[in-house]
Amino acid sequence: MVELNSETDFVANTPEFRQLAKDLALHIASARPIAVRIEDVPADVVERERRVAKAQVAEEKKPDAVKDKIVEGKLKKFYQENVLLEQPFVKDDKVTTATW
Fold first, then answer.
1. Is the separation of the CB atoms in 86 and 34 below 8 Å?
2. Is 45 helix (H, G, I), strand (E, B) or coil?
3. How many domains does the chain have?
4. pLDDT digits (tens, 9 = 90+) for 21-69
5. Residue 83, domain member (yes or no)
6. Domain of 24?
7. Residue 75 lies in a domain
8. Residue 55 counted as domain residue
9. N or C end of the chain: smaller count of CB under 10 Å?
10. d(Cα 66, Cα 62) in Å, to the nearest integer?
11. Do the domain assignments include residue 54?
């Protein structure tokens, strides 16, 4: 659940604020993030994803340092798909929800 606030009723009653609320609700409903920020992703979920990524690269004939970077890249991709502020905005995938 996400709460959208403004400091005054004047702002909350503007068409722009209401559109922002609708767009945010649309994005959350369609993208289904599991957390708002990376720091909010449960540690057990991050560890599970890390184990899966490590298992995927274990058989590759690459140096360990390269494998570690691949694992970190896979985690970054996981965050982009599952964390609200990292996700591409549903109405404009050139920006994230954090920058839109």
1. no
2. helix
3. 1
4. 999 999 999 999 999 999 999 999 999 999 999 999 998 999 999 999 9
5. yes
6. 9-94
7. yes
8. yes
9. N
10. 6
11. yes
